[in-house]
Amino acid sequence: MTSVIDLYEKLRLAPDETARARIIAEAFEALENRYPHLDYLVTTRHLSETELKLTKEIEQVRLNLTKEIEQIRLDLTKEIEQVRLEVEQVRSELKATELKLTKEIEDVRLEVEQVRCELKATELKLTKEIEDVRLEVEQVRSELKATELKLTKEIEQVRLEVEQVRSELKATELKLTKEIEQVRLEIVQASERTRSETLTAIAESKASLIKWSFLFWLSQMGAILLLLWRLFPNRGG
Predict the structure, then answer these.
(1) Which of the 8 DSSP states describes residue 37?
(2) φ, ψ dihedrals at 60, nearest 5°
């Protein structure tokens, strides 16, 4: 009884918080010296509970990161598939253009063959008009040459468009590469942030553990002192 009253008087008369903390620390030290196994039992139980809690939180963070990475992978797969479909569409258009040009060239060849047949028939039928026919043939050749130049220009234009498409595809590939790198960087940053938050939670748990351990020790000390007072009331007098 006297020890509890003395402790209360010391705490009440302490000039500041530092003095009160020192008085409490000395009281705990006396209690630990008298009951050396008390600190070990309390600390082990609380540490086990904290360890289980932190293990669950870390597992939840891992599951969240795994879901986010899987979602990013699915998004990138959809974008790549879209680019592939666009490339296939460009290829189809190029193939259609090629078929169209081939058909036009074939038509021109048929026309040339037709002109040749007509020239041969005209030569046999109209010997006097050979010179005129030759002039017409020269004109047709000029037209054919102009058509050939036109087709050459169109083919060159198609080649330029193909090169442009290739450049755009390359630019798209570079863009996707940069986006992938950005996503990786964000994942690393998220991992670092999660690690920092986990360390902060651990520190807060340790502080909470110390606080509750202090309260537990204080209550235990009061209970023990009360028990001693009950057992030995005459000594307190």
Answers:
(1) T
(2) -65, -40
pTM higher than the cut 0.90: no
CA distance 182 to 180: 5
74: Cα separation from own chain's centroid: 11
> Two tokens at 135?
């002039």
CB 35 within 8 A of CB 26: no
Instruction: State the Cα–Cα distance between residues 220 and 107, nearest whole angstrom.
Output: 107
- Token pair belonging to 180: 């992938």
pLDDT single digits (tens) 95-149 = 898 898 888 888 888 988 888 898 888 888 887 876 776 788 788 888 888 888 8
Phi, psi of 126 (to 5 degrees): -125, 85
Contacts of 225 (CB under 8 A, 6+ apart): 1, 3, 4
- Strand, coil or helix: what is 72? helix
